[in-house]
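Page 47, continued from p. 46.
Same chain as before, 470 aa.
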Amino acid sequence: MAEMDRLDILPDALLSIIVSSLPFKEAVRTSILSKRWVKIWQATKNIELQESFFVRPEESDQRIRDARRRVFIDFATNFIRDYEEPTIRKFALSFSNPRGDGGGGGFVDEIEACIRFAVSRDVETLELDFSDATWSELVNDGENHAEMFDLPPIVYGHENLRSLKLFSCRFRAAEFAKLRSLKHLCLGWNQVGIGEIRDLLRKCEMLESLRLKKCWNIAHLEIGGNDHLRLRSLAIENCNFLHDWISIEAPNLTYFRYFGSVGSFRMEVNRCFEEADLGFHIEEDHDSSELANLLYVLLDSLYPAKVLSVCSSLLQVIPKGDEPIRMQAPLNVQHLTLRTNVHPNEFYGITFLLNSSPHLKILTLVLGQATIFHEYEPPFPMDIASFWATNMVIIKCLSSSLETVEAKCFTGKHHEIYFLAYLLHYGRLLKNLSITVDSDDINNFQLYFGRAQLLKSIKPASGDIQIHIC
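Result:
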C-alpha cells in the first residue's frame, strides 16, 4: 500500500511513461488499481492487440472461437475509438485470417480501421501478424500458406515508419520507396521473390536489419552489389528456397542468424562482424562429407565472429569433411554456445569446435536440444565410455583462455557429467562453472540437483574456480 501511495503522488504524464514501458497486457491490468489508472493505461504509447488474449489456441469449438473473435474485434474497435493521445510508438496487431472463410466472419474493414488509426498517430513501429497459430514453423514441411491480408496503401506513404513486421500480409516491394526512415523489416509467411528483396534493399536505404521467417518461393538469396547497403543484422529462419544458394556481401553486417537447410553459402563480411547463430535441418540419409565441407566453408567465412551458436546437427556432421580435427585457420570465437545433448554422436564435433577456438572465454551448453542421427558413423574409432577420460588431444583454449562454463537444462546424464568433469580437469583458467538444473521436470529436480553436486567432488585444474548450482 505504501508503494501505491508513492505512485499516487506522481503526475499522470510520468505514470503514462511508466505504463508505456510495460507489456500491453500488464498495462491493462493496472486498471484494477483505481479509476485514475483506467485513464492512464489507455494512454499507453505501446499498443498490442492480440487475438490470443481472447481466443485460446486449443479451443476446438468453432462457435466459441467465432464469438471470442468478435469480442476481440469489439475490444480493439472501442480502444482505438476512445484513444486520445496524438502519437504512439508501437502498434502490434495479431489476428488470424481477417477475411474469414468466405461464409461470413470476416473483419477486413475493422482491421483496416486499426491500421489507419496507427498511421494517423504517426506510429514508429508497426507489427501486423495474420498468420495462424497452427501453422508449422519447420523448414521443408510442404506448407506454403497464401497471405491472409493485403497491406493497405496508407502504410506505403508513412514516411516516419522505422520498424515494420508483416506476417502473412501481402505487400508490394515497389511501393516501399517512401519509407525512407525504415530501419527494421521482418517478413514471415510471405511469398517473396529475389527481385522483391533487391527492391526492398535498394529503396529502403536506411534499412539496418532484415528478418525472413517461413518465406517461400525464393529462388535463392543474393544480397550485395549495393554501395549504400547499411544492413547490420540478417536473420533467415526456415525459409523454403527453390535453390539452396545464399550469397551475402554486406560490409556492415554484425549479426547473422540462419535456421534451415544446408546449402551453398557465400558470405563476405568485414572485421566488424560479431555474432552468428546457426541451426540446420539435415535429413537422416544425408551425404555427410559433402554437407561437412559446405558447413566448413560457412564457418570459415564467418571467422571474425566473437560469438557463435551452433546446433547438434552441425556438431554431428562437421568433423566428417576434409578437415576432421579443426579449422585450418582458427576462429575468433570468444563465446561459444552449443545446443547439444552431449551425445556420443556429438563428441568429435564438440572437440572440433573447441580445437578451432583458441581464444574461447565462455562456453555455454544448452542441453537437451538435439536431433540425433541414428545412422551416425564416427570419423574415427571411439570408446564411448572413456572418450572424455582418455581424450589426450591438447585443446589450447582449456589451458590458455577458457574462464566460464555454463550448463543449462542440466539433468545429470552420464555424458553431461563426464564432459563437465573433463573441462574441470583441464581448464586451468576456469573461474566459474554455472549449472542450471532442468526446472521443467519438477518431479526429478532434486535428483538432477544431486547429480550436479557430484561435480564439486572433482579436483579442478584451476585453484580459482567457483561452482554455482541452481
